[in-house]
Amino acid sequence: MDYSYISHLYCPKCLQTYEKDAIHHLCDCGAPLLVEYNLDRLAKEWRPADLERRKPDLWRYHELLPVQSEEHVTTMGEGMTPLLSMPTLGEDMELPNLLMKDEGIIPTGAFKARGAAVGVSKAKELGVEALAMPTNGNAGAAWALYAARAHISSTIVMPVDAPSITRNECALSGANLFLVNGLISDAGKMVAEAVKKQGLYDVSTLKEPYRIEGKKTMGLEIAEQLNWKLPDVILYPTGGGVGLIGIYKALQELQALGWLEGQKMPRLVAVQAEGCAPIVEAWKQGKTESVFWENSQTQAFGINVPKAIGDFLILHALYETDGCAIAVEEDEILKELKQVAKLEGSFVCPEGAAAFLAARRLREQNWIKQEESVVVLNTGAGIKYPDTAEVDVPVLEPGESLPLASSFVK
Ligand SMILES: *Cc1c(COP(=O)(O)O)cnc(C)c1O
Ligand SMILES: [Zn+2]
C-alpha cells in the first residue's frame, strides 16, 4: 500500500488538472485547486478496521492526505480531538443530541494546526524553504510554529488588532512578522507583492491546495468517532470557509470509499457574525459567489473575512447538503460563551460560541428539530482570547473573611 493515494490536483471551476509533484497555487482561471485521490483503488485496499491500531492523530488517515513520504511529516500530535456530548447546554437549547467537536485542545490552541501540519509537511516534501501568508492570527501562529519545526522560514502579516497572543506565537517562533494597520485583505495584498518580488511560497488561504486537506480531517474524525454514522447537522464558524469545504470534501471521499453506505449528508451550516456576513448574504439571495463586506467587524476574529476566495465552494456545499448560512448577533456571542462555560465547563473561543448561538437560533426557528443530532465545531481555545470577557470579582485584604458563597450565585 502507498502512504498517500494522491493522484493529481484539479480546478473545481474549470476542471483543468495539474500534476501532483510540482508546486502549484491557483488555477490559471484564478480558482483554488483541490486534491484528488485514487479512491477506486483505495476503496479496495483500505478498511475502517485498518485504523484501529493507529495513533490518535490526524496522520491516521495518511492514505487520504497528500504527503507521499512519511519522512516529510511534521507533527506535534495534532488531531483526534474529543467529540463531547453537551447534555446540560443541549437541554437549555432543547437539543438533547448536541455534541461539540473541541478543537481547543490541539497544538497552538486552534484547529488551524491541522491545516498547518499538512500544509507545512507537503511544503517540505516539495522542497520549499520560505513561505509567506496573511492571517487574522491563529493561522499565522500555527504556520509559523509548524514551519519552525520543519526548518522552513516564514513571513507573516497580520492586522494590528489580531489577538495579541498570536502575535507572540509568531514572533517567538522566529517568523518575519509584520503588523498592518488594516484588515486581513490588506495583509493579503502586501503578501502577494512580497511573494512576487521575493519568490516566497504563498500559503494564503486556498492559494496552496494542501491546507484544506489537513482541515478535512475534522470531517473524517467526526465520522469515525460516531462509528461511521453521520450527524444530521454540522455547524461551523465560517471565515475563509476552509474547514467547511474540507468537512464536505472528507464526507464525499468517505462516501466514495463506501464507508457511509446509503447515508444522507449532514446539513452543513456556515455561521458568521452580523458584522461580517458575506456568505449569509449570498446564501439568502441564492447566489453562487459572495460580495466583499465593507467595514467588517466582529470579536470573533477568526471569522472576520470580508471576501473568501473559496466562497463558491462554501455555497456549493451549503446548497448540496440542504444546509444554510446564518449570522448571529454580536452582543449575544459573549453571553453564549458564558453559557457554555457555566453549563458545561468548557471555555470556548468566540467563534465556537457563535456556532453554539447559531444552533440555539436554528432550534428556535425549528430549522433544527429537537431529536436531530447536532455537531458544533469549537474551533479554538477560549484561553487564546484573554481579553474577550471582562469579569468583575471582589478583591479582599489578607485576613478578611470570605462572604457567604451563596451571595456569589448569579
Ligand atoms: C480561522 C478560524 C475560523 C474560520 O475558519 P475558516 O476555515 O477560515 O472558515 C474559525 N475559528 C477560529 C478560531 C479560527 O481561527
Ligand atoms: Zn480553473
Account of the protein in words:
Helix 8 packs across helix 9. A six-stranded mixed β-sheet has the order 4-5-13-10-11-12, sandwiched between helices. A four-stranded parallel β-sheet has the order 8-7-6-9, with helices on both faces. Helices cover 35% and strands 15% of the residues. The relative contact order is 0.13. The radius of gyration is 21 Å and the shape is globular. The N and C termini lie far apart (59 Å). Helix 4 links the parallel strand 6 and strand 7. The protein has a domain of 199 residues: 3-Layer(aba) Sandwich (Rossmann fold). The mean pLDDT is 96. The protein contains 13 helices and 13 strands. With 410 residues, the protein is α/β, with parallel strands linked by helices. The longest helix has 16 residues. Bound molecules: pyridoxal-5'-phosphate and zinc ion. The site of pyridoxal-5'-phosphate (PLP) has 17 residues, from helix 4 and helix 9.
Compute the average pLDDT.
96
Shape summary = globular
Number of strands: 13
Physical arrangement of strands within the biggest beta sheet:
4-5-13-10-11-12
Any idea what the radius of gyration is? 21 Å
The CATH top-level class label of the domain at 83-109 and 213-384: Alpha Beta
What share of the residues does DSSP label as strand, in percent?
Answer: 5-15%
Q: In sequence order, what are the helices and strands, one letter per element?
A: EEEHEHEHEHEHEHEHHEHEHHEHHE
* Largest sheet descriptor: 6 strands, mixed
Tell me the number of helical segments per DSSP (H or I, 4 or more residues long). Answer: 13
Structural category: alpha/beta
Q: Give the names of the bound compounds.
A: pyridoxal-5'-phosphate, zinc ion
Could you please say which CATH topology of the domain at 83-109 and 213-384 applies here?
Answer: Rossmann fold
Distance between the termini: 59 Å
CATH architecture of the domain at 83-109 and 213-384: 3-Layer(aba) Sandwich
**Which consecutive residue ranges, at least 5 long each, have pLDDT under 50?**
none
- Please bin the fraction of helical residues: 25-40%
